[in-house]
């Protein structure tokens, strides 16, 4: 059986207010071609289908149109919810989608058995079983009374994740003995490389899960959440497929991938590069450097390349900020679009508020970035600082859960 692993589609994503609708459309068309050419039997989508818990009508339309394109290829589809997704929104049409051989597990169901999905071959025999575990929210993993200290709460979450996968493995063994099993997950594993666009989860990523705790039962673990494709150190093959398109400028140099397994050959996946549908460029330097780089941009026939401009000068000069504005406003090179600009001056250290006002847009700031600045302004003891961060991350998680439940 041939299996394709992807994740972190983030349908509806906007990069500095620029819609990535066309990027995802080209990816889906390419993915359909790969599925057809490789004769893929099973498609796994490991969370963060949408970028927002309450996606726009255009994002929902693109999601359903994509599923229709994929379903026509006679390929079974299993998708799980991520931390960006609303479980209720993903689960709402699951009965209809099931008739199309599309299984959606938006949030952890009351009975874990519902996440165990048998996959049948042409002879109508179970050839593979999937433990489709969605993003595990704090409420899924621990009670309010579990853990008094900061360290106890972190340990409770790690143990909760481990217990969930161990129980899923036990169900697979009991219900489908001798049948190989794959687990899906959406979590933050210890020792991996992140980018700027993942939202912190489970106590601000402090409860990083050690992949060795997956054990040795599953033949493969298909992970989502981290946007850079990579292998995680474990006894068994554990992989993040990464996001299929760049979702932040920190990902501009990443090689985007999908992963393909052939169970008859090996449980080690084959990595397939996703084409570059659009480039993200970061242009830095003084005014002369930036102007020169603007004038040497090459023609291309892809989607418009998006540009971040970072002016770096030695001496602070308001006229240079004005000159940068003029340069950016007069930029009209076909095939390119400037989506962000900022100015930095090496000889002047500004306060946080001033730096944010001049060099960053509000939409670019994570809540954790702002809170970190506030915490750093106080001389807290380490234990006190940990408790403050724990409380902040719990509040942030409650807000995300409230957003999801409201949708």
UniProtKB/TrEMBL annotation:
Taxonomic superkingdom: Bacteria
Assembly with partners or alone: Heterodimer of SbcC and SbcD.
Family stated for the protein in its record: Belongs to the SbcD family.
Gene3D superfamilies recorded: 3.60.21.10
Functional note: SbcCD cleaves DNA hairpin structures. These structures can inhibit DNA replication and are intermediates in certain DNA recombination reactions. The complex acts as a 3'->5' double strand exonuclease that can open hairpins. It also has a 5' single-strand endonuclease activity.
GO biological process terms, semicolon-separated: DNA recombination; DNA replication
GO molecular function, one term: 3'-5' exonuclease activity
Organism for this UniProt entry: Zunongwangia mangrovi
Every Nuclease SbcCD subunit D C-terminal domain range: 277-376
Keywords from the named record: DNA recombination, DNA replication, Endonuclease, Exonuclease, Hydrolase, Nuclease
UniProt keyword Transport, yes or no: no
Annotated protein name in UniProt: Nuclease SbcCD subunit D
Domain Calcineurin-like phosphoesterase: 1-229
InterPro entries: Calcineurin-like_PHP, DNA_Repair-Maintenance_Comp, Metallo-depent_PP-like, Mre11_N, SbcD, SbcD_C
């Amino acid at each position: 059986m041939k299996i394709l692993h992807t994740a972190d589609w983030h349908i509806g994503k906007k990069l500095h207010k620029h819609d990535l609708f066309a990027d995802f459309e080209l990816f889906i068309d390419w993915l359909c071609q790969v599925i057809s050419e490789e004769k893929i039997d099973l498609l796994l989508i490991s969370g963060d289908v949408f970028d927002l818990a309450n996606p726009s009508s255009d994002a929902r339309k693109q999601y359903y149109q994509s599923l229709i394109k994929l379903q026509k290829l006679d390929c079974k589809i299993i998708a799980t919810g991520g931390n960006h997704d609303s479980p209720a929104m993903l689960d709402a049409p699951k009965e209809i989608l099931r008739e199309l051989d599309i299984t959606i597990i938006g949030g952890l169901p009351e009975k874990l058995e519902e996440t165990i999905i048998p996959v049948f071959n042409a002879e109508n025999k179970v050839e593979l079983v999937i433990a489709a575990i969605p993003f595990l929210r704090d409420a899924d993993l621990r009670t309010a009374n579990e853990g008094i200290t900061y360290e106890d709460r972190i340990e409770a979450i790690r143990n909760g994740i481990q217990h969930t996968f161990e129980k899923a493995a036990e169900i697979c063994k009991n219900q489908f003995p001798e049948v190989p099993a794959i687990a899906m997950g959406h979590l933050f594993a210890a020792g991996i490389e992140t980018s700027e666009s993942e939202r912190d989860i489970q106590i601000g990523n402090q409860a990083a899960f050690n992949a060795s705790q997956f054990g040795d039962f599953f033949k493969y673990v298909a992970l989502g959440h981290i946007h850079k494709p990579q292998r995680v150190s474990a006894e068994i093959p554990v992989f993040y497929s990464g996001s299929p398109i760049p979702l932040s400028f920190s990902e501009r140099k990443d090689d985007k991938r999908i992963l393909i397994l052939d169970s008859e050959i090996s449980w080690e996946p084959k990595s397939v590069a996703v084409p570059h549908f659009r480039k993200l460029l970061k242009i830095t330097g003084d005014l002369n450097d930036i102007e020169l780089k603007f004038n040497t941009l090459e023609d291309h026939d892809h989607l418009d390349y998006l540009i971040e401009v970072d002016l770096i000068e030695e001496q602070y000069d308001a006229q240079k900020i004005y000159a940068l504005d003029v340069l950016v406003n007069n930029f009209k090179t076909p095939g390119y679009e400037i989506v962000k600009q900022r100015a930095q001056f090496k000889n002047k250290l500004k306060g946080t508020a001033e730096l944010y006002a001049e060099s960053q847009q509000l939409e670019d700031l994570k809540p954790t970035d702002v809170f970190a600045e506030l915490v750093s302004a106080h001389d807290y003891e380490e234990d006190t600082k940990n408790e403050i961060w724990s409380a902040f991350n719990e509040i942030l998680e409650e807000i995300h859960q409230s957003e999801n439940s409201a949708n």
